[in-house]
Amino acid sequence: MKASHALMLSVALLSAGAAQAQFQKPEDAVKYRQSALSVMGTHFSRLGAMANGKVPFDAQKAQEDAAVVLMLSRLPWAGFTPESQKLDSKAKPELWSETGKFKAGADKLVSATVALDAAARTGSLDAVKKSFGEAAASCKACHDSYKSK
Ligand code: ASC
């Protein structure tokens, strides 16, 4: 990891930590995590369209999308506050009891988006395809375990 990336990573982790104490209402935490996941999903899907050949590969756009995904991937987890458990959402009950496993899944996604960002910076479609597939598997693993349909 380049020094600049390591710095960005620590800044992002610090801001994720700071976000935890900042929700005034449990509803705010739900809105925060859903918003972060929604924007991340939007940019991740744009990468997916390129990785899967549905739209032509544009290295510049891929790099921008991957940078957004990288930044956003650290944010949702602070919104899964214990106080928000009682609110209606797609979070399965297991999410709140298997916190270690859930955290490990979140960490895995963050690592996958670091790799995806690095791949997009190379400008190689093949590299993007490979990292996209790994990141998508990480999204899916958590959705299968912790998100109801
Ligand atoms: C996406 C998106 C997800 C993941 C997931 C991967 O594009 O919005 O949540 O990919 O479907 O299986």
Features:
Four Helix Bundle (Hemerythrin (Met), subunit A); electron transfer activity; Cyt_c/b562; elongated; mainly alpha; iron; 73% helix; 149 residues; heme binding; transport; 6 helices; binds ascorbic acid
Rounded mean pLDDT score: 91
CATH superfamily: Cytochrome c/b562
What's the tally of helices?
6
Gyration radius, to the nearest Å?
16 Å
Shape, per Cα inertia axes: elongated
* Unreliable segments of 5+ consecutive residues: none
The major pleated sheet works out as: none
The structural domain count equals 1
Instruction: Tell me the strand percentage band.
Output: under 5%
The CATH topology, please? Answer: Four Helix Bundle (Hemerythrin (Met), subunit A)
Q: Please, could you describe this protein's structure?
A:
By secondary structure, the chain is an all-alpha fold. It is 73% helix and 0% strand. It has helices spanning 3-20, 26-51, 59-72, 93-97, 99-122, 125-146. The protein is elongated. The structure holds ascorbic acid. The site of ascorbic acid (ASC) has 7 residues, from helix 2 and helix 6. Ascorbic acid (ASC) binds at residues 41, 44-45, 48, 136, 139-140. InterPro entries: Cyt_c/b562 (IPR010980), Cyt_c_II (IPR002321), Cyt_c_prime (IPR012127). It holds the Pfam family Cytochrom_C_2.
